[in-house]
Amino acid sequence: MRRSTIIWFLIATCVGVALFLLKYEVQNKEDQLAALHRGILADQEAIHVLEAEWSYLNRPDRLEALVRRHLNLVPMEERRLGALEALPMRMPDFESGDTIIRITEEELIAANLPPLPEMRPRHGAPRISGGIMVARSAPILQPIQEQGSVGPRISAVAMTVGMGVQ
Amino acid sequence: MKPISRSVKIDGVAKQAIEIGRNRLLVAGCLIALGFIAVGGRVIELSALRDHNEPNVATSTGSTLTTGRADILDRNGMLLATSLRTPSLYGDPQEILDADRAAQRLVTVLTDLNPAEVAAQLKTERRFVWLKRTLTPTEQFEVNNLGIPGLHFQDEWRRVYPQGPLTAHAVGYTNVDGMGQAGLEQAFDDVLRSGRDPLRLSLDLRVQHIVREELARQIISFEGIGGTGVVLDVDSGETIAMVSLPDFDPNGSGDIPDEAEFNRASLGVYEMGSTFKIFNTAMALEEGTTSLTGGYDATNPIKISRFTINDDHPKARWLSTPEIFMYSSNIGSVKMAMDAGTEAQKAFMGRIGFLGKLPLELPERGRPLWPSTWREINTMTIAFGHGISVSPMHLASGVATVVNGGIKQPITLLRTDAPGPGERVISENTSHDMRRLMRLVVLGGTGRKSAAEGYLIGGKTGTAEKPGGRGGYNKKSLISSFVAAFPMNAPRYVVLIMVDEPKGQKHSHGYASGGWVAAPAVKRIVERAAPLLGVAAVDENAPEIRRELMIEVPSEGGKYNATF
């Protein structure tokens, strides 16, 4: 009887202490959670303010004034736009091994290939009749280091960006 | 207690006391055990049974920001209106020691306050008086530095419009308590106050800026009193830009002048003048009473009762339908309308939506003015845009219907990704004819100053006299407008520019007509905005475009096409 009482008493004490510790642990966690929530809210509000400021700083009239003052960009004009078809065909470079083959329309039909698209004739350029000239060239990426091919690439970039240099 | 009393009879006093004690202990023990069982059961229920078990994911409470009012964004997600937390200053007069001195010191920091008023407020018997709403952080810091007891701050949500006056008429504004007072803020007040999702508008801030800038330039250069500019998407009915000048800054706390608050684009109704010939011609073509090869004799002015209808650019000969449209002949248009008939005209105006309010979301919508009894004289004047008043938004929406293949799409200020099917008003063929006629005006008619190369603009000028006193018209005060669509082979956007009361200038040789005032602005707007709207310039001389827009002008025996 006495021994069991002592055991029960010990168990009760242990449970009590454990409960006490647990309670404080939970309270701690809840404080932490509340602090985190407050932090999240504060961050969200800061983001919110920054978004408003971002929008304020991105006012079109302000951007326009800044561009006028610091960059030499001008509004894009129609003549700066071009179509891919308007680019002249790359001239074959015989020194680096390009060859010219002539495919006639009969050969195309015989090989069961669709007719190649024709280019729109440019201001009085002679139309090649009786077939299509095809320049077999080196891979298209190769000449990027060469001086000559840099020009059209820059203008292509300018086309995509939609701005030209004054 | 009955068994106890029975045992009393049987046993002695000592035993009886023990029995009583034991029984009471038993009862108390049972009660306590019952209590423990209840508590234990509740613990098991809470921990194991409720929601099956402890949830794996904690539910967060109150960790999302609620501003009390949802944001408003443009179609690309730029902020047009948002709410920011700002401190407001209030005083507790009971805590104030020396009201006069407190007021004197306060106005050294908040210079816009009146010291006498503040002192009077601080002497009242109340416990709460607002001193100043929405302070800046610097002002709050300075007031705190004064260290006056009895002054307190309360955070409030304040509506902020980062874009200032740019979208003032569309977005509107709220009062100091956050209630929508105008524009979409008023129309969607409930939605904005309850929702957390932002309201996404169809406006494009960049295009809006371009339209506002070009419109302002024309108003200044022609000394106009105001104006409006609209850009509509012809297929979806979305409003890409809507500008009304003069405008106001919705952030300002002061009173907005009525003139600036008035939305000319949707609330103002005007007699539009010759731009109505678009609808007159479309109606006649649709009715089949006129064809592109037909025409009318425009030699003599038309006299009806006390009025004489004459042409502004008289040719005094027989004119074909394309010429009537191109030279904006009033005489030809009147004859065209008379052939189609009064009933047909009224029905057409109703179908295209000119006899009722617009389906726009704004609370500021003008009701068109039209004759209650539609007589012959009304048919005549409506043929060239007098005697019926509609808002500029009506006009732009009508032109969108005419050029987009004939489908009326309700116009909207909200971004719509999947527009509805719309309602057919005119046939595909009539729409195609109208596109060619409108292109002709830009190539060889009154709208030549709008020709932006490569964008295939087509449009119609309008120069209307404003009604003056005594039922007549004032020759000096004009409404000059130009309504256009581009690219004319497959229209994507409608642009409308209207300037109120422009005056003739030296650089315009004294003219203040739509072709001089509004058309150049449309040209610049299209040139600047088309790349942003994803419309590429094309070769105007390409054969498929020439074929698409070619039109015959019979009387001159020649063909107008894209090479003109």
Would you mind describing this structure in some detail?
- The complex is a heterodimer of chains A (166) and B (564).
- With 166 residues, chain A is mainly alpha-helical.
- Chain A has helices at residues 2-57, 60-70, 105-110, 150-161, and strands spanning 73-74, 99-103, 132-136, 164-165.
- In chain A, strands 1-4 form a two-stranded antiparallel sheet. A two-stranded antiparallel ribbon of chain A has the order 2-3.
- The longest helix of chain A is centred in the N-terminal third of the chain and has 56 residues, at 2-57.
- Chain A is elongated.
- In chain B, the strands form seven sheets. In chain B, strands 1, 2, 3, 4 and 5 form a five-stranded mixed β-sheet that branches.
- With 564 residues, chain B is α+β, with helices and mostly antiparallel strands.
- Chain B is elongated, with a radius of gyration of 37 Å.
- Residues 557-564 of chain B have low confidence and may be disordered.
- Chain A binds chain B through residues 33, 36-37, 40-41, 44-45, 48-49, 51-56, 58-61, 64, 75-78, 81, 120, 162, and chain B through 58, 60-65, 67, 78-80, 82, 84-85, 160, 162-164, 166, 205-206, 208-210, 213, 452-455, 527-528, 531, 536-537, 542.
- Rg of chain B is 37 Å
- Binned, the helix content of chain B reads 25-40%
Helix content of chain A: 40-55%
The tally of structural domains of chain B comes to 3
CATH architecture type of the largest domain in chain B? 3-Layer(aba) Sandwich
Question: Structural class per helix/strand content of chain B?
Answer: alpha+beta
Could you list the spans of chain A in which at least 5 consecutive residues all have pLDDT below 50? 124-166
Tell how many strands the DSSP assignment of chain A holds. 4
Span from first to last CA of chain B? 121 Å
The biggest beta sheet of chain B reads: 5 strands, mixed
Terminal-residue CA separation of chain A: 103 Å
Principal-axis shape of chain B equals elongated
Structural class given helices, strands, pairing of chain A? mainly alpha
Give me the side-by-side strand order of the main sheet of chain A.
1-4
What is the count of helical runs of chain A? 4
What can be said about the biggest beta sheet of chain A?
Answer: 2 strands, antiparallel
CATH homologous superfamily name of the largest domain in chain B? DD-peptidase/beta-lactamase superfamily
**Mean pLDDT of chain B, rounded to whole units?**
86
**Greatest contact between two chains:** A-B, 27 and 35 residues
Q: How would you sum up the global shape of chain A? A: elongated
* Beta-strand proportion of chain A: 5-15%
